[in-house]
Design brief:
The protein contains three helices and 18 strands. Strands 1, 4, 8, 9 and 10 form a five-stranded mixed sheet that branches. A five-stranded mixed sheet has the order 3-2-5-6-7. Strand 6, helix 3 and strand 7 form a beta-alpha-beta unit. The relative contact order is 0.18.
Length: about 350
């Protein structure tokens, strides 16, 4: 049984402040030099994906790297705002671009987005995205804003991660936790700690050190926001793709008339049967911010999907509502049978 519900925590929602805080939290991305010993210690252990990866109809259309705020909803998720930044690296310390980084975890009260029924779990905080993803740029860096993971019976606090690197068709899963004593929302010490958690306890000391993170206060905030930095070191060698291998390419958006006097942006791309396509915009944070965008298959139809599996080879038109300040979008694609964001 879960502990008593906490008092609501108000989290100010300010997208400009979000990106500013992200920049502060990411200090150290450009620090030079990576010792082989450090890479060994920070190499993430591979663990189970877990039973709560969201099903396709659980994942929100707004599946970007901000799990605190859903779309234009002004009400934020309940919980302590938490930033996590890092890089996807190969075993030599080189950054991996076009790596798909997925993050999912429980809300403030320990409920996941996952549901075997229709749509998202009704017990999960309605303002919490529960799942987000990020496509790395040339530096291999990723960023997420979310909340401190809630507790549920049998586990201590943890984030789930899935990383799919170019040339691989499946995600590699791991988990990160908090290097601290876990307390329930009522202030009592939680029964399951890192030392007796069934995922964390079997790991070696070096593996635990690599994924039990120290979260520190974010400078300049007054609401208890915290941040940590964590690098995911892959044991696989990425393969730089050429289409139609897995990967992505840039495409321009042509302004066209949308419904009710709006403007949409038409992307016309070469498609291959059974390939899965996604669209990312780059409006704010240079090569660090490839934000997943929902889209429509028609010029005036509903913006109702965040991925599309082509049924035939040929030209494919996709329509987005969000303008790209730099005039282009990134189209990500996965070969048939590859990780498309579902188990």
């Amino acid at each position: 049984m879960k502990e008593s519900k906490p008092l609501p925590v108000y989290i100010p929602v300010n997208r400009r402040r979000f990106f500013k805080s992200m920049a502060a939290a990411s200090a150290g991305f450009t620090l030079p030099g990576f010792l082989a010993e450090a890479l060994t210690l920070t190499a993430s252990p591979v663990v189970t994906q877990g039973p709560y990866y969201p099903l396709s109809d659980d994942i929100p259309l707004d599946k970007d790297n901000d799990l605190v705020q859903l779309g234009d909803n002004l009400t934020a998720a309940t919980g302590i705002v938490t930033y996590i930044t890092g890089r996807v690296l190969d075993s030599s310390g080189n950054p991996i671009r076009n790596a798909l980084v997925e993050c999912w975890h429980a809300d403030n009260e320990g409920d996941y987005l996952y549901s075997t029924g229709t749509g998202r779990n009704s017990a999960c905080d309605a303002n919490f995205a529960g799942f987000g993803q990020f496509l790395t740029g040339s530096t291999g860096a990723f960023r997420f804003r979310t909340i401190k993971a809630g507790l549920y019976t049998g586990r201590t606090r943890h984030f789930h991660w899935g990383v799919t690197i170019p040339g691989k068709t499946t995600r590699t899963c791991t988990q990160t936790g908090w290097n601290e004593v876990a307390y329930g929302n009522n202030g009592a010490v939680w029964a399951t700690q890192n030392s007796n958690d069934n995922v964390f306890s079997p790991l070696s000391a070096a593996q635990k050190a690599s994924i039990l993170l120290d979260f520190t206060p974010v400078a300049g905030t007054t609401t208890g926001e915290v941040a940590a930095n964590w690098d995911f070191v892959s044991g696989y060698t990425p393969v730089e793709p050429t289409y139609p291998a897995p990967g992505g390419f840039l495409a321009q958006g042509e302004p066209v008339a949308g419904p009710n006097g709006t403007v949409r942006y038409k992307l016309t791309i070469p498609a291959y049967a059974n390939y899965c396509y996604e669209i990312y915009g780059n409006p704010t944070m240079a090569d660090l911010e490839w934000k997943a965008l929902p889209f429509s298959l028609s010029q005036t139809g509903s913006i109702d999907r965040h991925k599309h599996v082509a049924t035939a080879e040929g030209s494919l038109s996709l329509y987005v509502a969000a303008a790209a300040e730099k005039g282009f979008y990134k189209v990500s694609f996965r070969v048939p049978g590859a990780n498309t964001g579902m188990p």
